[in-house]
Amino acid sequence: MSKNILIVDDSASIRQMLGFTLRSAGYQVDEAVDGKDGLGKAQGKSYNLVFTDQNMPNMDGLTLIRSLRQIPTYKSTPILMLTTESSDAMKQQGRAAGATGWLVKPFDPPKLLEVLKKVLP
């Protein structure tokens, strides 16, 4: 069974690179342009994992994570932050919101796929 992954990022180039990396590894991928779009897609379909950026218009990544954690089907779904934010304070906020992990852009495709194997059931 293939895994469904949702990418939420306002950068088209990041969505494209991340989507290519994931699709090449055999994952099914949907994309959202910001947190509000991502939340809508997540409410309409079940994903095995969600990648989200932090700094986006309409709804930021931390707000998206908190919103997803309120939905029963996303209580234990892995949610990874993929962002340029790397401060300990921001990572702590991410953990408090319910983020499973934190990756800093630019990402290394092989390392990213390694992380996926660890967090995907």
Task: Give a description of the structure.
With 121 residues, the chain is an alpha/beta fold. β4, α4 (88-97) and β5 form a beta-alpha-beta unit. The chain has helices at 12-24, 35-44, 61-69, 88-97, 109-119; strands spanning 4-8, 28-32, 49-52, 79-83, 101-104. The modification 4-aspartylphosphate is found at residue 53.
E-strand count: 5
Strand content: 15-25%
* Poorly predicted residue ranges: none
Helix and strand run: EHEHEHEHEH
The appropriate CATH architecture is 3-Layer(aba) Sandwich
List the domain count as a whole number.
Answer: 1
Task: Give the helix proportion (percent range).
Answer: 40-55%
CATH class membership: Alpha Beta
The biggest beta sheet, please?
A: 5 strands, parallel
User: Could you name the CATH topology?
Assistant: Rossmann fold
Query: Nearest-angstrom radius of gyration?
Result: 13 Å
Topology:
Layout: E1 4-8, H1 12-24, E2 28-32, H2 35-44, E3 49-52, H3 61-69, E4 79-83, H4 88-97, E5 101-104, H5 109-119
Parallel strand pairs: 1-2, 1-3, 3-4, 4-5
How would you summarize what this structure contains?
The protein has 121 residues and is an alpha/beta fold. It is built from five helices and five strands; from the N terminus they run βαβαβαβαβα.
